[in-house]
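ok so heres the complex, two chains, lmk if somethin looks off
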Amino acid sequence: MNNIDEPIFEAEFNPDKIRSDANPDLAAQIRQLISGQSFGILCTQGQRQPYGSLIAYAFTEDLKHFFFKTQIATRKFKLLSECQRVALVVYSRCQHREDLTSVAAATITGKAIHIETGEEYQKGVNLLRNRHPYIAHFLEAESTALFRIDVVRYFHVGRFQEVSQWIP
Amino acid sequence: MDPLERHAIPLSQVADIDEKQIGGKAAKLAQLASAGFRIPDGFSIPVGAYREFITATELDKVIQFELGRKSFDTLRWEEIWDAALRIRTAFQTAEIPIQVQKDILKCWKQLGAQKSLAVRSSAPKEDSAQVSFAGLHESYVGVRGRAELLDAVRLVWASLWSDAALLYQHELGLDPLHSAMAVVVQELVEENVSGVAFGVDPRNPASNHSIIEAVPGLCQDLVDGILDPDRWLLARSDGRVIEVRPGNRETKESQKLLLDDENVRQVYSLLQDVEQLFGWYPDTEWTGRAERLTLLQARPITTSEPQARDEKAYYLTLRPGQKRLRKLAERVSGELIPQLEAEGEKLAAEVVTTLSDNELAKTIETRQNSLENWKQIYWDEFIPFAHGVRHLATYYNDAVHPEDPYEFVGLLRGQSMISTQRNQALTDLALQLRQHTGLLKRLNRLMQDTAETSVPFSTLEAKLEEHPGAKSFFQEFHKLLDRYMDVSYGQDRMKDQPLAVLRNLLEMAKTDSIQERETKDRADVRNLENKFFRSVGPDRETEAREILKIGRLSWRLRDDDNLLLGRVESQLLRAIEEGLDRLESAGRLEASVRPNPKLAPMMAAALRYPAGGRVEFPAEEAKTASPISRRTDIQERQLIGQPAAPGLVSGKVRLIRNATDLGKFQAGEVLVCDAIQPNMTHLVPLAGAIIERRGGMLIHGAIIAREMGIPCVNGVPNAADLLENGELVTVDGHLGIVTVGAAEFDLEIGD
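and the predicted structre for the whole thing:
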């Protein structure tokens, strides 16, 4: 398996160069995976420390953006305020304990932007509310902050080690 | 179509359907109908409809979240009530799936759309022969029209998660994922007599007696305990009447028995038939006489009902209906509170220092009896009356359907209570101090010194004797102590803690906010009142006004009763203190002991028998060790409680455990306590935020904090054990989370 380094944003990043069309159904597979799951692991970094947190997410139809909310008094909020570069891991966990080859996973890399007000804020909250109505009180709480992940690319893993990437 | 695929099935077609699908009530009604009993026509809404409703609306996740965000075992009953209210509100505002609605409305039209209906719960486990938890789920009678029917169905579904049901969740095996509720909708048969009948006396199953009870009108008035019934005790063997007791209903008609001999025989015969059909002793509800005699429901008599002294059963008594609340309101406000107030004033006026030892012993006993008596009244009447606020909540929410189930709290604003009068007096005095900057500075300096040396208050007062403004200040201060602080807090008398009160005053004088925090906003209250009355409509406005009045009274008196009871206790402590002084002077005290009400009997005996020699009072009970001790390897990072008042504030912890701690409180600190008591509400405006062990959205600390815009998280178990004075916490009153410490990563980095 090739070891792919995440390119530096803006500077070295050239999506054309790494676009993979080996599997035309990849986008559909990714859509199916993230539609079927409600939660993902958000990976943040800062203070020389990687950190992982479980989040409830929503995404836009074009799969270019994810939204999530976090309470302000948390470590992940602090780290996000210091560094926008994040990864989000979504996988079809627990359903196929005996058969590892049927687990699907996606590692989504991108930039997490703090959205404080405006139409975009409302859009993000609405998407989250539609997907997670049972935490409406959390989504409405003033002590939480909305983040939008602008996706750079997806790394899709199937059959244990089959990895493909897709730029939305 | 398979009947089970339908979301509503006429009772005439449910005979072959498993009880698990339609619930015990519907299954038995169907059996009775098949056997030829006269029962009201109706239809069943099987559990499948409930499941479809909660899945389509994701209410299943709401229930799971509500019951799972905090360990259920740590929820106090107030929190359980709140959880049930939030679930109920979510059910009320959720849309029933179209197909479910269509099926229900089809059966409704077949039954007769213009008819008045009874909509009852029929939970699969509710009426089995092993367990009976009658009354945990809701029934609605007199329901008319499409919208009312669907609302009633939603509420019966929601009552699977009622506060009463949640109290018994273990016994009922309630589980958000698997539990479900069926509903029975029946034509409401309105006869002029109804009642209950038992195949065997449920209080004494070995007695060989059957019982019949009857009231005028609907059976609901009997079941709800609103009307006292006529009662017949019959021989089980042949139906012979052994005893008749007419009900006490204060009307002319009540003089005459509601059933004649023939009517009684018919009900007895109905009981016999039901028993023969099912093979168990029946507990039935019936209505009408002679050929109109109709069976409303039948279930087995069980003796495994909640025990009367059971704690949970006591909580169930804290849900009095409108009629009982009305009576309680009259008695509590008209008789008890004035009596309690008079008792406190009378005892406070008594001089104990001039009494002989014998007289003092008698006084101590009298005061102890008085305190015990009032404590009993507190449990029996004051606490149930406090439910008036919750009754208002449910009534308001049913009428207004607000998104926020606590919107009604706005109606409680601006009520004058003893504590608000005291807080105003403290504020006035703090403002007076601010006018005398010289005195204020001097006091602050002296108090800093006394913090280390614990100088008595009298010395401090003497030091300032000549200072301009001091005389009038201390005069007012003493007046305030006499008027408001002669109350107990734990085992302390607040009046004995003048330094603590003075420190609070100095903190109040520091903050600019004391004048601004005017909590009354009359216009807002009036707008909310108008919204409420508009929603109930002109026909029910009188009823709504009464419920509002009782709700407000209940909220106000719930605060006053605490302070007034504390005043009576303070007088007992004062007398015991005097006794201790005398024993000490006489050299009879073996070891010094703090006055507490438990010393009363021994103290009285010691005073009566001076020859008794030295007295050793039992040592104070050691405080039970904290169930959670702080460890260095495991640390709580986020404590979960109830989001009692919104806001997000970080600050340093100040634990309040007794009257001395009250005096240590500094403006801006996070107040951590068991519960905000009425005698400490003056600290609320000073607090940066509040954390309480006792939980609930409607407890006083929560409502006061909300009025003042101060974040509050309550229902944090072991809050006082897990947190330490001076520790940094972030109180998230929006979400009910207390975050301990800063978001640091030093440990991970290591160096």
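quick notes: Chain A has one domain: 15-166. thats all i got rn
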